[in-house]
Structures are given as C-alpha cells and as structure tokens.
Amino acid sequence: MKKMILIGRSECGKTTLRQALKGKEIHYEKTQYVNHYDVVIDTPGEYAENNTLSHALALYSYEADIVALLINATEPYSLYPPCVAAVANRPVIGIVTQIDAEGANPDQGVEWLELAGCEKIFKVSSYTGEGIWEILEYLREDGDMLPWDKKEDAEKPRVVFSTKSVTILEEAFDDIMKVS
C-alpha cells in the first residue's frame, strides 16, 4: 500500500482514522509524537497548529507517498490556507472526518479542502466505517492484502472504547443527580 501521512488539527480524527483503516477496535489515544504504523504516519495536531512545529510535517512528508489533510465536518473554520497543497511534492488528498457527528457539514469541509488544493477528497466516519473502503482502494497497490475482502465488511460500525465517552456519560449522570 502507499504510505500516507495524516495532517490535521488536534482531535480532527487522525488517530481514529488510522485505527479504522486497520480494522481495529477504536481506542482514544492522544498522539504525543510522530508515529509510524506500517503504511500510516500519524502526527500530533499541534504540529499543524503551531508554525514552529509545522516544519516537521514537511520533513516527515518525504517519508510518505501521499499527504492527507484532514478536517472534521464540524469545524467552524479551515486550518489550511488556499493552495497549500502546492508546496508538497507528493499527491495531496483531503479527508473530511466525523461526517456523522451532530451538526456536521461535510460539504463545507470538502469546499475548504478543494480550496487548499487537494486532488481527491474522501468523506469518512471512522465509527460507522463509511468511506473507509474508498480510502483503502485509493492506497492499494497491486498485490496488496486489505484488512477486508469486501466493501460491506470495511463499512461495518467499529467497537469504540473511549475515555471521552465515559467523561460525557459521567457528566450526564452528574446532571441527572443534580436534578433529583
């Protein structure tokens, strides 16, 4: 498979997407440093958000075949300036994540990624699996074995283990207890 570097702001879904592409259960993990996983380079969001760290993204992109700019479908603004893809010497794709989130506007994410210069754009939900197959097919090279044989298998909902969910449930429980 082609090697892909994931770039985007904190909590846009880079690590979750990496886990979904591998077919694994999804566990929330905060990416603290640049991680290499088989064919995915997962980067901390702070690298894209901070101009003193962003230079590292340019260096790590040389280790990839594809640069993927991620933006989640609930973003109020784009992190990427117009035509930023032109500075890469690799193909640049866009990935709109969290398309199933409450208040999501995937079309706005697509528009921003087009403006950034992405040559192909995918809409995905790492939790439901929607769009995962299309990314895998894009990365596939002759002779590659994918985690799934069929699109239907790739697009099944994932088991999600997240401390974020627990925190939300605890807050909801606390609110219920205050009312009682």
Q: Could you give the count of β-strands?
A: 8
Indicate the low-confidence ranges by residue numbers: 165-169
Largest sheet: 6 strands, mixed
**Through-space gap between termini:** 55 Å
- What shape does the CA trace take? globular
Calculate Rg over CA atoms: 17 Å
Structural class: alpha/beta
Given the structure, what is the number of helices? 7
Strand order of the largest sheet: 3-4-1-5-6-7
Q: What integer is the average pLDDT?
A: 84
Note the quaternary state here.
single chain
Helix-strand pattern: EHEEEHHEEHEHHEH
Helical proportion, percent range: 25-40%
* Proportion in β-strands: 15-25%
Pfam families: PduV-EutP
Protein name: EutP/PduV family microcompartment system protein
InterPro entries: EutP_PduV (IPR012381), P-loop_NTPase (IPR027417)
